What we know:
Shape: extended
Strand content: under 5%
Structural class: mainly alpha
Number of strands: 0
Number of helices: 3
Amino acid sequence: MKKIFLALLSVGALISGAAFAELDNPGGIGGLESLRGASQLEDTRPADEMKKYPKDQIVADSYVYQPPLIPHSIRNYEVSLNANKCLACHSWKNAKEMGATKVSVTHYVNREDAVLADVSPRRYFCLQCHVPQADAKPLIENDFKKVDSLK
Length: 151
């Protein structure tokens, strides 16, 4: 009986604490802070500075089988069901003329290992794996070790 009474007291304290937090911060963030910082839901904070995309430098891979990074800005690139701006330069048909890297042959194979004439639907949305290399500070600290450390 004593355990039940203590459990009820704990639940009551939680409920009254939640009610107090809502009264203390009506319409606010509830005391939570995201990677973008603490701000009210109704406020619009200033945009972050645009990231710098170093074109002269190619960033080395950090781990085995890492998809290559994009060494240029992709601002206003459309990659949707109807269009893929990446393929305008990187398809096998256009790469030589555009001076771009060709899409890997692995992107022309479907789930049944059949070779296709066009990029496989499962590899069509490039930005699911490939990201622009940017001179940006990490959002959070980490202790990730690069490939060289595995030797």
